[in-house]
Amino acid sequence: MYGAVIISATGRNQVLIENYKGIIEYTNEKIRVQTKNCQVTVAGKRLMIEYYTNEEMKITGFIQGILYDS
Q: Is the pTM value of this prediction over 0.90?
């Protein structure tokens, strides 16, 4: 589906989110982003946004879970 969020997890230490609209919440334990159709929450410890552009975002840290909220 064109414009759908794409989430790629590499192990437990890195998540790449593509096609997001904005950052809603950013703490050491939770990063929540808005996508076209839902909100995505990355939960863990020592989370950090390593970089972000208009198209993608790279989150690093100890990833404990990824949650989709409609």
A: yes
